[in-house]
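Postdoc handover notes: sequence design on the structure in folder B. Input tokens:
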């Protein structure tokens, strides 16, 4: 066990002494959890193989799952990547923001960071604390989500503490994250370019910029798809899951509530404690041990923001089974459904 230092930091005007202390840990090869606009990240010096190995150990992350590199200056892209496309500005002008770009990796990037691939994933986060930390460290920061592998991503410092207290050096606490789901990952090394993970930057908006952009089949898969050589090894690992068994009910809005209540009654009758992950439109319809709402079905940004926190709350309530409503797959709803499907282990009921 390490002692994990937890520091509250002002999200708009990060205190210089706190950022300096965190940056010193990064430079010395340690691990610092920090806020971004998407979720909390677990950071280490991306160019220090041993430091990056520490991330895998702390998270118990499979070694083949590569890690996104966070930068504070667009020019750093050219140190980390080779074969940068000429029109890259069309995408990097969206930085800082919830968009991760995959390019061919330069020699500078250790295999620990790329998970052994010849590509590197890069993003500039839109959060003052994250940017200050990267700048002050003077190195790019490799950071996956700051949770134990397989668990829901952390959207508060408390979530990070639940999973990683005693396993990392420091947590910078700047309050809840604004977006709540991870970044959109776009692979520019494939032709046509493809989204490997839907996230905080909506597909619809990105498609307007990259005309031939497509979604990798795994993004919208509603069953386990066998991918021989996944371009993003993270795709094949179980993800985002609460401790409770999660069943996702998808289909016509009119039929959702009846089917969900039927499942609640079935599991309750077996003596299980059952939770429903609902939306505002339907939440009054359910009789279950715990009912929680993601917000209005018309507000995908709100649903994204609340998703991971609510999954953890069900665990705190010690429910055995969560029955979740499917939501529309537009805007951030695509990311929400992708996470719910994976959290269910593709245990999906269609109505
Ligand atoms: P997380 O660790 O939760 O932030 O997830 C990072 C995601 O980015 C994982 O799904 C990785 O597989 C993906 N990723 C990171 N680097 C690469 C890369 N070089 N190529 C493909 N996917 C990547
Ligand atoms: Mg993660």
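Designed sequence:
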């Amino acid at each position: 066990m390490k002692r994990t230092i937890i520091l509250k930091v002002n999200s708009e005007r990060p205190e210089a002494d706190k950022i300096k202390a965190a940056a010193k840990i990064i430079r010395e090869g340690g691990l610092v959890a920090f806020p971004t606009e998407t979720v909390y990240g677990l950071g280490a010096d991306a160019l220090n193989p041993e430091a990056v190995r520490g991330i895998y150990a702390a998270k118990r992350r499979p070694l083949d799952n590569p890690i996104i590199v966070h930068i504070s200056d667009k020019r750093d892209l050219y140190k980390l990547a080779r074969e940068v496309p000429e029109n890259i500005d069309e995408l990097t002008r969206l930085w800082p923001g919830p968009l991760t770009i995959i390019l061919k990796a330069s020699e500078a990037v250790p295999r620990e960071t790329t998970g052994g691939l010849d590509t590197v994933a890069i993003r500039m986060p839109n959060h003052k604390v994250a940017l200050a930390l990267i700048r002050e460290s003077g190195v790019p920061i490799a950071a996956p989500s700051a949770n134990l592998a397989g668990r829901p991503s952390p959207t508060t410092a408390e979530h990070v503490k639940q999973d990683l207290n005693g396993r990392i050096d420091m947590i910078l606490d700047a309050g809840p994250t604004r977006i709540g789901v991870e970044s959109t990952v776009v692979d520019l090394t494939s032709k046509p370019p493809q989204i490997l993970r839907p996230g905080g930057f909506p597909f619809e908006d990105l498609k307007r910029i990259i005309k031939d952009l497509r979604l990798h089949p795994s993004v919208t898969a509603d069953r386990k798809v066998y991918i021989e050589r996944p371009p993003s090894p993270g795709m094949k690992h179980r993800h985002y899951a609460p401790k409770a068994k999660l069943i996702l009910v998808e289909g016509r809005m009119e039929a959702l509530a009846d089917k969900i209540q039927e499942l609640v009654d079935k599991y309750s009758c077996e003596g299980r404690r059952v939770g429903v992950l609902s939306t505002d439109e339907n939440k009054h319809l359910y009789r279950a041990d715990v009912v929680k709402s993601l917000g209005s079905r018309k507000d995908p940004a709100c649903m994204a923001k609340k998703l991971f926190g609510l999954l953890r709350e069900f665990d705190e309530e010690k429910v055995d089974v969560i029955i979740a409503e499917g939501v529309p797959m537009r805007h951030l709803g695509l990311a929400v459904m992708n996470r719910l499907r994976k959290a269910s282990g593709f245990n999906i009921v269609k109505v």
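Context for whoever picks this up: The first helix runs from residue 16 to 27. Don't rerun without checking with the PI first.
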